[in-house]
Design a protein that fits this description.
This protein is an alpha/beta fold and 336 residues long. It has 13 helices and 11 strands.
């Protein structure tokens, strides 16, 4: 995929610092070695220093010595991070003792490094759940100003010759995080997904907020939510090519779009699809992946003030490598 190579080249040209809190996880460690070798990112590994050294020798890794390794149980800077966490969370009832305990937690420490500006982004999930990472991320890093929820987008690489999307690419969201967004959250997801399409998928977004109705063809409260979300997104970002409510065929098939939504600048040519709820989005991307033979890259988490991304626990070394490169690109885009 040319896009992945472009993402890698951009990361190499604008090197970021990425923390891998699961530093003693085998796939993560192997990916880190290759990331360092290829100059993708400056790597920070969190984990038991002795175990990382043993695994490095066992796997014959040549570049891990160039990473910054932090042993959370033997961290000379523990007090600094504990005090930072305490200041952030004391209004929520956190005690200094609790902060000191959490400063030894590999995930909390990784998130604190990002918050402190010592890392530009974080990638985890080979061994941990999405919630394990999002909980401290939302507590410490929080969301982008004006955004109240986190969402997950997938870049869909369609089979060669597909007539849909742009250059064989589409972006789907939310497929990973927020189960039932309200209209305001759905509008935020649409705007965040447009930015992901532009900055990560490298396409000019044409965003369709989807429904089972097209321009009033059906009446229901869930349709009303999509209509309101469309209005809010258009108000927030009038620069975006964005429309709704559109059925899926009206969004991507030119003949259907011109028939069902005449005058729409998005209908029939959408490349960025925003689903009304997580259930629909998750089902849709998996069906396109399996039935159409598309490759799904992600989820790319959206809405956090600093990029933190989550892998599947069934991920490969290559998956870790790619997601680190994507996270670097998110960090680069946020700094512009």
């Amino acid at each position: 995929m040319d896009l992945i190579q472009e993402i890698i080249r951009n990361a190499q040209a604008n090197k970021q610092r990425i923390v891998l809190p699961e530093g003693d996880e085998p796939r993560t460690l192997k990916a880190a070695d290759q990331i360092i070798a290829d100059g993708i990112a400056d790597v920070i590994l969190i984990g038991p220093a002795r175990k990382i050294a043993e695994m490095t020798a066992e796997f014959g890794l040549k570049n891990i010595s160039k990473a910054r390794i932090i042993d959370p149980k033997n961290n000379p800077e523990k007090k600094k991070y504990a005090e930072m966490l305490y200041e952030i969370r004391k209004a929520k009832g956190m005690t200094m003792e609790q902060a000191e305990d959490l400063a030894e937690n590999f995930m909390y420490l990784g998130i604190l490094l990002v918050k402190a500006g010592e890392a530009d982004g974080l990638v985890s999930g080979a061994r941990s759940t999405t919630g394990d990472m999002l909980r401290p991320a939302l507590q410490i890093i929080k969301t982008v100003p004006g955004v109240s929820c986190v969402s997950g987008a997938f870049i869909m690489f369609l089979p060669e010759g597909s007539k849909y999307g742009t250059d064989g690419k589409m972006v789907f969201a939310d497929c990973a995080v927020t189960p039932m967004p309200d209209a305001k959250q759905l509008a935020e997801i649409a705007v965040c997904t447009a930015d992901t399409a532009k900055n990560i998928a490298k396409i000019d977004p044409a965003v369709a907020i989807l429904s089972f109705s097209t321009k009033g063809s059906a009446k229901h409260e869930v349709v009303d939510k999509v209509i309101e979300a469309t209005r809010l997104a258009q108000e927030a970002r009038p620069d975006l090519l964005l429309d709704g409510e559109l059925q899926a065929d009206a969004a991507i098939v030119p003949s259907v779009g011109s028939s069902k939504a005449p005058g729409s600048k998005v209908a029939g040519k959408a490349n960025t699809l925003v689903f009304p709820c997580l259930e629909v989005g998750n089902i849709a991307y998996k069906l396109v992946q399996r039935l159409a033979g598309a490759e799904a890259v992600g989820p790319v988490l959206q809405g956090l003030a600093k990029p933190c991304n989550d892998l599947s626990r069934g991920c490969s070394v290559e998956d870790v490598y790619k997601l680190v490169a994507i996270t670097c690109n998110q960090a680069i885009a946020q700094k512009k």
